[in-house]
Design a protein that fits this description.
heterodimer; A: Rossmann fold; five-stranded parallel beta sheet; 5 strands; about 45% helix; about 20% strand; B: about 550 residues; alpha/beta; TIM Barrel; nine-stranded parallel beta sheet; 21 helices; 9 strands; globular
Chain lengths: ~130, ~550
């Protein structure tokens, strides 16, 4: 069975170039991709992840709000009983990555991440 | 019969222009003409303006070095503004945070984690007063990058200017106010497209009657390009949106020559040097031709496309960020050789965070090197007449015309209806996403080299110091908002918001006066936007990949 991935834009930023490119890369790599669209909250992401029974959740944030919102998404997922790993993509300053990993984020894809790495890491987490 | 050549007409205009002090020579002392070309060729300052909108171009005045800034609270940004002005910038450009861009107050639950992050948080008139403290708005021109709440922000700005004793007629600057590209690319929308266009109409009419030095819309290709379009799509979608605003104003009974001169444009300067220059040249030619021939504009100022340029954020790399200074310098030079009226240069660390103070200063210094050291400002359109650049200009214009024809067909003879239908049917959004994906795959296949990303990797581990924004700003701003709410008269807030709702229900009424009343009463951005949502509803985009 192919890997099911939920991709979501969390928070208020409308930059959807990256999330759409990554979603297409995953789809072309044979995964099933569900895209939520813009302006999701931690709660709506977690609810969709459970409803869709996904293997991995990917969120995209280019607004700088990731240190606040990414841990909230992890918490909302676990509260709803989902054990799906959360990966984060976006403008993440180098110093933030280590802290995010200790806060329960499974992988961080910063602005320098390559498409191939993203596909490989998500496959390995599923 | 007149025997005057194009060169003679240009020469008359040039001789009438004021010039800055030279010397207009090369470093070895070779005297330079203000422009080169055959007597019957195209000239700057003459229709169709391919070579520039002014006969004397940078010999009269360099471009405005307009640096975009905003973060934290209004006082933080005010300090950065004063630093920028002190460093020699001649215009300001305000970046707002995400909650403000979506018309949410800093204490809204949806704003958590986002207050003051990507720009400055503005909740009420008190914040605008802080933002422009000790900055003379009669002298410094101000640009405000905001779209869905643009009318609300203009009302706050006008109310602030009134308090500081600056007359509306002296205010100069630009409101971005380009809502069409929000649905197409940047995605910071609130109201449905047609209701948003009514607010755009109201700001255009208000500026036409009360603010003669104000540009009511900055028609923006920048975000379309950043979202992934090609150069040709950026050009074509942006000009199509410009035509749509012209049609909107004309339908509202405004004269084309009253509104067109107040539209300015905003383009990206990406890394493909000659294609960018061709794009700016084609933009001027296409706009002039369409305004004269399709929209019957008679005032030459309506034909002249003036534009701001920003270097391409998406071209910056997280790897070896110092190298971004080189990319930015090359992109900025394309903007200048393309005849831009103003320029923002990105800071080297912007793939990682908001710019640090030092990175922002180096970005401004990059413009100053181009302006004062390279001598490129002495001759207008220096690449005009190059076989390559002229052919590329023609081809970019031809491909843009093909896209115009498609949009015109979607609108059954109206570019306004074509743009709105294209948005409602996700046509623009899909084209942009397709182009972004095509480019990404070409990087992944290794067909294009990006220094530090897929080649020349040594040095990628260098540490970079970036600007950190803390949660303290969010707490400060929420406390500030709370204080404003306690100090104001809740009766006058309720009353002005009631009038706003009533006026919004009548599509014939201009909403600027009730918005200015609400701004004076210290109604918040969130309250004014909610009042309008009550009447207009909210836009929801159908997610498509």
């Amino acid at each position: 069975m192919s890997t099911r991935v939920l991709v979501a834009k969390v928070g208020l930023d409308g930059h959807d170039r990256g999330v759409k490119v990554v979603a297409r890369l995953l789809r072309d790599a044979g995964m099933e991709v569900i895209y939520t669209g813009l302006f999701q909250t931690p709660e709506t992401v977690a609810a969709t992840a459970v409803d869709e029974d996904v293997d991995v959740v990917g969120i995209s944030m280019l607004s700088g709000a990731h240190m606040t919102l990414a841990p909230l998404v992890v918490r909302a997922l676990r509260e709803r009983g989902s054990s799906a790993p959360l990966v984060l993509g976006g403008i993440v300053p180098p110093g933030d990555e280590a802290e995010l990993l200790t806060l329960g984020v499974a992988a961080v894809f910063g602005p320098g991440a390559s498409g191939g790495d993203i596909v490989r890491i998500i496959e390995s987490l599923a | 019969m007149s025997t005057e050549s194009a060169r003679d007409i240009w020469r008359r205009q040039f001789d009438g222009a004021e010039l800055r002090s030279g010397p207009f020579t090369t470093m070895s002392g070779i005297p330079l003409e203000p422009v080169y070309g055959p007597p019957e060729g195209e000239f700057p300052g003459l229709f169709p303006y391919t070579r520039g909108v002014h006969a004397s171009m940078y010999r009269t005045k360099l471009w405005t070095m307009r640096m975009f800034a905003g973060f934290g609270t209004a006082l933080d940004t005010n300090a950065r503004f004063r630093q920028i002005v002190g460093a020699g910038a001649t215009g300001l450009s305000t970046a707002f945070d995400m909650p403000t861009l979506l018309g949410l107050d800093s204490d809204d639950p949806l704003a958590r984690g986002e207050v003051g992050r990507c720009g400055v948080a503005i909740d009420s008139l008190a914040d605008v007063d802080d933002l422009f403290r000790d900055i003379d708005l009669g002298e410094i021109s101000t640009s405000m990058t905001i779209n869905s709440p643009a009318a609300v922000m203009l009302a706050l700005f006008v109310a602030h200017a009134e308090k500081s004793g600056v007359a509306r007629r002296r205010l100069s600057g630009t409101l971005q106010n380009d809502i069409l590209k929000e649905y197409q690319a940047q995605k910071e929308f609130v109201f449905p497209p047609r209701a948003s266009m009514r607010l755009v109409r109201d700001t255009m009419a208000f500026a036409a009657s009360d603010m003669p030095r104000w540009n009511s819309i900055s028609v923006s290709g920048y975000h379309i390009r950043e979202a992934g379009s090609t150069a040709v799509e950026e050009l074509a979608f942006t000009l199509a949106n410009g035509f749509a605003y012209v049609e909107l104003a004309v339908r509202a009974g405004l004269a084309v020559d009253d509104v067109a001169p107040r539209l300015s444009f905003f383009f990206n300067a990406h890394i493909d040097f000659f294609e960018e220059i061709a794009k700016y040249r084609a933009a001027r030619r296409l706009w002039a031709t369409w305004l004269r021939d399709r929209y019957s504009a008679r005032d030459p100022r309506s034909w002249q496309l003036r534009f701001h340029t920003q270097t391409a954020g998406v071209s910056l790399t997280a790897q070896q960020p110092d190298v971004n200074t080189a990319r930015t310098a090359i992109e900025a030079l394309a903007g200048v050789l393309g005849g831009t009226q103003s320029l923002h240069t990105n800071a080297m660390d912007e793939a990682l965070a908001l710019p640090s103070k030092k990175a922002a200063r180096i970005a401004l210094r990059t413009q100053q090197v181009i302006a004062h050291e390279t001598n490129v400002t002495n001759v207008a359109d220096p690449l005009g007449g190059s076989w390559y650049v002229e052919a590329l200009t023609d081809e970019v214009a031809r491909e843009a015309e093909v896209i115009f024809a498609t949009i015109d067909e979607m609108g059954e003879g109206s570019m306004l209806d074509g743009c709105i239908r294209g948005i409602e049917e996700n046509w623009f959004q899909r084209r942009i996403a397709d182009s972004a994906y095509d480019l990404e795959r070409s990087f992944n296949r290794g067909e294009r080299i990006v220094v530090g990303v897929n080649e020349f990797l040594e040095g990628n581990d260098d540490e970079v110091a970036t600007l950190r924004i803390t949660d303290d700003d969010e707490r400060l701003q929420v406390a500030r908002l709370d204080a404003v709410k306690r100090a104001r008269s809740s009766e006058s807030v309720a009353e002005t918001l009631h009038h706003l709702r009533v006026d919004a229900s009548d599509p014939e009424v201009n909403l600027m006066p009730p918005l200015i009343d609400a701004a004076r009463a210290h109604a918040t951005v969130g309250e004014m936007m909610s009042a309008l949502v009550d009447v207009f509803g909210r836009h929801v985009e159908v997610p498509t990949l």
